[in-house]
Design a protein that fits this description.
109 residues, alpha/beta, five-stranded parallel sheet
């Protein structure tokens, strides 16, 4: 299994449909980053907590992992695949791309 890229435009479109109920948007940034800028409805588990908290996630559910630009989330996504998760996506460009391309109300940092 591999990590699949997921664009912010795909996320915006998917969030506007009933299909989104089948996804978890996992934000792996630090708490200070999450408090500064976030996508409503995301689940916050900081990257360093993922190894102890991944059992909270459903291995059968599709998970879109996100961070600031997409590097940390790629690492977490690969880790989740190694842990047996079957439908893992990395949000390309992270919250920064979301702010630039989809929701300018979300602050950039």
């Amino acid at each position: 299994m591999t990590v699949h890229p997921f664009s912010v435009k795909q996320l915006k479109e998917t969030r506007q449909t009933d299909q989104f109920s089948g996804y978890v948007l996992l934000d792996v940034r630090e708490l200070s980053e999450f408090e500064m800028a976030r996508i409503e409805g995301s689940l916050h588990i900081p990257m360093h907590q993922v190894p102890e908290r991944y059992p909270e996630l459903d291995k059968e559910q599709s998970i879109i992992v996100m961070c600031h630009h997409g590097m940390r989330s790629q690492q977490v996504a690969e880790y989740l695949v190694q842990c047996g998760f079957s439908s893992i996506f990395n949000l390309s460009g992270g919250i920064d791309a979301w702010s630039c391309e989809c929701d300018k109300a979300v602050p950039r940092y």
